[in-house]
Amino acid sequence: MKSKSELKQLSRNYNYLPISYTTNLQTFDPFQIIEHDDPSNQHSMLFEYQDSRYTVVVTKPLQTITVKNGQINLTDQNGAQQMITGSPIQFLNQLLDKYRVAKTNSLPFSTGLVGYFGYDFAKYAKDSRLSDTNDELDLSDVELMLPDITLTYDRESQQLTLSQLLASDQFDANYEQVIVRLKERAQLIKELLANPTTKLPGLKITRQFQNQFDVKQFDQRVAKTEQHIELGDIFQLILSNPYLAQANGSLINVCKNLYQTVESPYHFFFANRDFQAVGASPETLIKKSGRKLFSYPLAGTRRRGKTKAEDVKFAKELQASQKELSEHNMLVDLGRNDLGRVSQFGSVHVTKLRELLRFSNVMHLGSKIESIANPAFSSVDIISAVLPAGTLSGAPKESAMKIIDQLEQRKRGIYGGGIGYIDFDGDLDLCIGIRLGYKKGNHLVVHSGAGIVADSDANQEFHEFGNKSRLMLDAIKAEQAQEAEQL
Q1: Is 60 exceeded by the pLDDT of residue 47?
Q2: Would you say residue 130 has pLDDT above 80?
Q3: 192 alpha carbon, distance to own chain's centre
Q4: Is 102 helix (H, G, I), strand (E, B) or coil?
């Protein structure tokens, strides 16, 4: 971590500086902090990444940024709103330029933007020809938060770091004041965690889950997809069939169940007014660390076996399936092409191919793609190039997305988008919006998708939704059981 004199030197070259304070902390419960700061779950985010090493918590952001139907809405801490017209991509690029900072500590993320880019953010890319889809839930295309104080807990070092932006022209006058504020906040957190008193709000299901499409309706959509494949319009398409329900209350307890019971590279909880999302995503959309870019496509799925022998059997079936191998190779090629658009020429390489990865309820084939970022492209440009991932759309991507709009007949929102952070120093880490549920008003949605190719079995793919959604549905069921016990 930089000393005061080192920060003073950096203040000559940057408009803002991340000021940080680190303290030792043996255990960390992010849910106690969210419930203390944001008991109604209106403006907060939890993001756990790097295989659960780091947990970021943001509450009471300085500003929330929402993009919907081309309109940009800025809301400050007091609820005052400002509407902005123009290109969302250009606006976000200008915002990142304004807050460009030097890296002042060893954490992957300390100051920047947190939140999500929805699946439909792709329509703002310059080459997009996508039409607007049915949006009965009035879902946003982007929801981001500009933190006041960012909390980052490093589980490996057992340290909590608190970070705040400070304008360089206010460094001399306000540096000590910021340090005192961060120390006071750290002490408050320690006292809160030592004496937990808050109770997480529950969730009450008022209408039970039902798939958007029944078996017959889904079979018809698979048949239409295969017709497009035969005509050469696409090679593959990821078709979604969400579980829909109605509920009152908060998803925060569902997130806690996932956080405590499900091993996953990512966990997240996001709340902004009447919208909440929770998930345990196994897949990275895009990660940037320094000049290096990383993508980790997952494609090819089997459920976990009930016994060790059955698990081995399913793994061998997955690794021998020509359908799954073909699908995976196709999407790795698409991922290479996407990364190549924002990378230095010749720097894109597949460093791992078709590795077997086991998760709580399913297993996947996974690969790793690396490259060197082209400095001409911003973080938002990089996200625009890769979103949505081919593993959530199909190939060719834009043709697949147009067909998805026709077949699914509803906006995907955060499903298939990217959730995570953009650091003001240029780094970023976004997971793909899968293994998730979201709630808008009293509408509750659990999303998953199935990869359709020429020889897909519609009945098998229909049941794959249950396998992929089981993790989220079980977490909701567990939350309901806990609520019933407390009555």
Answers
A1: yes
A2: no
A3: 28
A4: coil
Closest listed residue to residue 238, CA positions, set 368, 438, 412 = 412
Nearest-angstrom CA–CA distance, 208 and 150:
37
51-55, 145-149, 360-364, 387-391 — which is least confidently predicted?
360-364
Tokens representing residue 153 in the block: 């807990």
Residue that is written with structure tokens 């490996």 in the block: 156
For helices 458-486 and 215-230, angle between their N-to-C axes, nearest 10 degrees: 140
As to burial, measured by CB atoms within 10 angstroms (0-12 exposed, 13-18 middle, 19+ buried), residue 276 is: buried
Q: pTM to 2 decimals?
A: 0.92
d(CA 358, CA 301): 10
Q: Which residues does 35 contact at the CB level (< 8 Å), separation at least 6?
A: 198, 199, 200, 252
The pLDDT value recorded for residue 403 is 95
Which residue matches tokens 């050469």? Answer: 232
Structure-token pair, residue 465: 């939704």
Report yes or no: 266 and 431 within 8 Å, Cβ to Cβ.
Answer: yes
- The number of residues making up the chain comes to 487
Calpha distance 171→166 (Å, rounded): 7
Give the integer Cα–Cα distance in Å for 269 and 250. Answer: 11
Contact 34, 44 (CB under 8 A): yes
320 vs 98: CA distance, rounded Å: 51
Domains of the chain: 4-291+375-486 (3.60.120.10)
Whole-angstrom distance, CA of residue 225 vs CA of residue 405? 12
The token pair at 382 is: 């990089």
Other Cβ atoms closer than 10 A to 447: 28
Positive or negative torsion for Cα 184, 188, 189, 194: positive
pLDDT in tens, 206-255: 999 999 999 999 999 999 999 999 999 999 999 999 999 999 999 999 99
